[in-house]
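User: Let's play a game. I give you a shape written as tokens, and you guess the letters that built it. Ready? Here's round one.
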């Protein structure tokens, strides 16, 4: 069962996505209304995937993604109403595994999550190898 954290400040959208994902067999481990709360919930619940709105209050989704990747690396998919190359580049630089255009649906999320989780696993292997190399050089 895929464990998902939804970070979205538009309550109606967050609840609709939660309902769709739960009907698809996912466990929604939390709803965050701002980026700071997303980071805190990610640390507390350790989801498989975080759906992160780019335009969150308090801490925007890019900054929250960067913080998550530093503190508790997790597969993050960015949600944005402004899907363009600039957002994709910023999201990837922060550590996100992909972007989804809003509004999105559970089938779109599940398709994106499958490839994002595979990519995230590959990055995990690379991170571990990098740490091993760093340790060997000391």
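Assistant: Ready! My guess for every position:
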């Amino acid at each position: 069962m895929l464990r998902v954290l939804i970070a979205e400040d538009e309550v109606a959208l967050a609840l609709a996505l939660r309902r769709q994902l739960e009907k698809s067999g996912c466990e929604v481990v939390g709803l965050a209304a701002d980026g700071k709360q997303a980071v805190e919930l990610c640390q507390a619940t350790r989801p498989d995937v975080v759906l992160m709105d780019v335009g969150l209050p308090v801490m925007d989704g890019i900054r929250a993604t960067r913080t998550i990747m530093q503190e508790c690396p997790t597969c993050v998919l960015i949600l944005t109403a402004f899907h363009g190359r600039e957002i994709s580049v910023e999201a990837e630089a922060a550590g996100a595994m992909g972007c989804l255009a809003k509004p999105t649906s559970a089938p779109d999320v599940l398709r994106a999550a499958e490839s994002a989780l595979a990519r995230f696993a590959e990055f995990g292997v690379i991170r571990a190898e990098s740490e091993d190399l760093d340790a060997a050089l000391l």
